[in-house]
Amino acid sequence: MNKTLLTLFFALISMGVIQAQTLTIVYEGQVLENGATVDINGVLSEDLFYEIVAHAQIKNNTDRSVQVFAQRVIHDTITGSENYFCWDACYPPSVGLSSSTMTIEAGQMSGEEVFSGHYEPKNHLGVTKLEYIFFPESDPNDKVSFLVNFRITPASLESWKESVQFSNAYPNPATTAVNFDYSFPAGTQQAKVKIVNLVGQTLAEQKVEQNSGKVRISVDHLKEGVYFYSLIIDNQSVVSKKLIIKK
After folding, report:
1. H helices then E strands: how many in the chain?
2. How far apart are CA 118 and CA 148, in angstroms?
3. In the prediction, which pLDDT does 45 show?
4. Distance CA 187, CA 151 (A)
């Protein structure tokens, strides 16, 4: 941006033609882009009061004090879990908008404990997606937000593997195609089935998009012989077994 355009830009800001955003979100000491997503991980627990928490501070970018509301929007939630938020005061799970504002002085941030988003998995695996929105009382459209993925996984890899259901390949021996039935625990991010030869070269691969269902992979292009199929979940090999191709 040249000097003339830069001067014009700041002049427009001072005239109110271009308005800087009133608020910004600070998460773990870093300023978040508006609409950013963060991941918060927890482990499966039989303690029904176990929770994981998102903390953030809200900064007032103006030269005047601002009265700020907080709002929670549920995008996706695991059945049986609960969540709530605090904005100075804590609100029950049924409440999505703070009933009162919080005053943030000019150029200052809210205290470290003023806002918190709480998630109680209630012994359920999976990902709950919640959005937290903040806006001045004077202008509800001047809002900032961030999305939190609250992810609950088993406490150990072995217990997680035990919750995976993956059938043997059928038919086996196969001629033109092979099938697999599967069911994965909620919270699985990436899964795929691949077929490799005896030296580990991948010859066929199929992504798995749903948490349960059936996968069908064409093997018509493979020569007769012995191969191996593997189930890969979140970059972890969960199952690896022999597959026979006959023509």
Report:
1. 2, 18
2. 11
3. 81
4. 7
Determine the pLDDT at residue 13: 44
Look at the domain 3-153 and name its fold: Immunoglobulin-like (2.60.40)
CATH placement of domain 157-245 = 2.60.40.1930
Q: Where are the domains of the chain?
A: 3-153, 157-245
Q: pLDDT tens digit string along 107-134?
A: 999 998 899 999 999 988 778 999 999 9
Q: Are strands 102-104 and 115-120 parallel, antiparallel or unpaired?
A: unpaired
Contacts of 135 (CB under 8 A, 6+ apart): 23, 68, 69, 71, 141, 142, 143, 144
pLDDT attached to residue 188: 66
Question: What confidence tier does 27 reach under pLDDT thresholds 50, 70, 90?
Answer: very high
User: Is there a shared CATH topology between the 3-153 domain and the 157-245 domain?
Assistant: yes
Report the alpha-carbon distance of residue 104 to residue 111 in Å, rounded: 9
| Environment class of 192 (CB within 10 Å of its CB; exposed 0-12, middle 13-18, buried 19+) | middle
Average pLDDT over residues 151-160: 68
